[in-house]
Amino acid sequence: MADLQAFREETKSWLAENCPKGARGPGEVHTGSTKVTVSADTQAWMEMMAEKGWTVPMWEKEYGGAGLSIAQTQVLFEEMSAIDARPPLVNMGTRMLGPTLLEFGTEDQKKRHLNLIARGGAAWCQGYSEPGAGSDLAGLNTRAVASGDEFIINGQKIWTSGAQNADWMFCLVRTDPDVPKHQGISFVLLPMDQPGVTVRPISLISGSSPFCETFLDNAVAERRDLVGQLNEGWSIGKRLLQHERSGQGGLGPSAARSRPVGVSVDLGVAEVGLSYVGVTDGKISDPALRDEVVQWKMQDAAFKATQRRAGAESQNAKAPGEATSIFKLVGSTLAQDKQELIVKLMGNSGTGWEGAAFSKDEIGATRSWLASKAVTIYGGTNEVQANIIAKRVLGLPD
Ligand SMILES: Cc1cc2nc3c(=O)[nH]c(=O)nc-3n(C[C@H](O)[C@H](O)[C@H](O)COP(=O)(O)OP(=O)(O)OC[C@H]3O[C@@H](n4cnc5c(N)ncnc54)[C@H](O)[C@@H]3O)c2cc1C
User: Fold this and answer.
1) Catalytic residue among 244, 271, 340, 362
2) Whose Cα sits closest to atom 35 in ligand 1?
3) Nearest protein CA to atom 7 of ligand 1, as residue
4) What does the pLDDT look like over 210-268, one tens digit per residue?
5) Which of 140, 155, 239, 335 could form a cystine bridge with 133, CB 3.0-4.6 A?
6) Where in the sequence of the chain do the CATH 1.10.540.10 domains occur?
7) How many CB atoms lie within 10 A of CB 283?
8) Yes or no: domain 249-393 corresponds to CATH 1.20.140.10
9) Domain 2-90 CATH superfamily
10) On the CB side of 86, how many CA atoms lie within 13 Å of its CA?
């Protein structure tokens, strides 16, 4: 405990001294992409944190991390939160592929890929979904054929987030079409900058293009970048999804960022919308709306408490499990409900799309509301999470 206190003091003073002003508060976060230019402060912050191994604090030092315990990592995140420091580096490499490679990768894969991820040298995208394989992911058809030291890959991926700026893709491919569908899938890594890969951005209703169609036309993955055994990629792909859902559900050391219940009055859902509804004696004047806000806040508080409890209970767990689906389901529903409630509180002002009649914040609220439609879809839909919880957590029959 004394050691942890000493670590807290050291961390606190290092952060105060080194975190640039431009890396505090809301703003851009480094994604590791070699195709995106960031501000000098964002770049410097990422590099300083990478030097300490704090872009991926829990990874071993030989793979670019700092080998911190969960308790130390929580302290680091709490102290970053205290000065409003942004995360130095966030991408699918740090959160999803990295932890999967730590469990399943060869030594060569770990040395090559993890160190590059940790120092912000590559952004990754996820080549799972296909036009005919979303919820039924195991029905995927992208075909990979072994040829010497390579796999030659043909097919189409869709909804590939960030593919336009990614340097590498982790991809589920069919390597044996003649066995039951879950048994003929492999997990491979391939560079995006090659003639066989074409990406075409897709526009969303929110006005942005965060994902792409990705066409693989004789694309090449090196044989040494097959993760795990040939045709045994399904369980690796599922583990990666558990890491993804764990992050989406706010589990792990990042739960330290959520405040303990009762410590502060977090306006949360109401803060944007409060100025739009009558507030008397510190209360929203419409009792029905007041009730909705309180209901949401109670559920949010209960969820945060559960995140912290689950985090504490799983301190020694080596990898996330099927229960991550509970957090993904509840967390994404709450996040979506919050955006609904905000535009509701804003009344007509919550319908702004463009033009001088609406402020920047009002237009931002509308777009966030539309963007929030995706949170109950990506990482597996709510219905799919409910299926996993029923079958794999509660043990109900098919
Ligand atoms: C913003 C965003 C980012 C994404 N990023 C990526 C990415 O980077 N990489 C990637 O590979 N994919 C990505 N996806 C794709 C995402 O994983 C799929 O959209 C999702 O798995 C659903 O698949 P689908 O769109 O094909 O819908 P479908 O599978 O066709 O589902 C349609 C509807 O049917 C329901 N349904 C389907 N099967 C069942 C069932 N068995 N029981 C009950 N209901 C069912 C679903 O819940 C859904 O409501 C992203 C999606 C979004 C929205």
Assistant:
1) 244
2) 383
3) 160
4) 889 999 999 999 999 999 999 999 999 999 999 999 888 877 665 544 433 322 233 34
5) 140
6) 2-90
7) 11
8) yes
9) Acyl-CoA dehydrogenase/oxidase, N-terminal domain (1.10.540.10)
10) 21
Q: How far is CA 70 from CA 64, 135, 309, 316, in A?
A: 17, 33, 14, 9
Intervals of CATH 1.20.140.10 along the chain = 249-393
| Gap from CA of 137 to ligand 1 centroid (Å) | 9
Is residue 213 part of the annotated active site? The answer reads: no
Rounded Cα gap, residues 54 and 261, in angstroms = 28
Other C-beta atoms lying within 10 Å of the C-beta of residue 342? 23
Q: Is 162 helix (H, G, I), strand (E, B) or coil?
A: coil
- The number of the ligand 1 atom at minimal distance from the alpha carbon of 204 is 1
pLDDT tens per residue across span 301-351: 999 899 888 877 777 777 888 889 999 999 999 999 988 988 888 888 888
Question: What is 124-231's CATH topology?
Answer: Butyryl-CoA Dehydrogenase, subunit A; domain 2 (2.40.110)
CA distance 159 to 71: 36
What is the residue whose two structure tokens read 């739960």?
255
**C-alpha angle 15-18-21 in degrees, rounded to nearest 5:** 95
Q: Does pTM surpass 0.85?
A: yes
Pick from 92, 124, 126, 159 the residue to mutate for probing ligand 1's pocket: most ligand atoms within 8 Å of its CB. Answer: 159
Summarize pLDDT for 133-142 with one digit per residue, the tens: 999 999 999 9
Q: What is the mean pLDDT of residues 162-191?
A: 97
State the DSSP code for 86: P
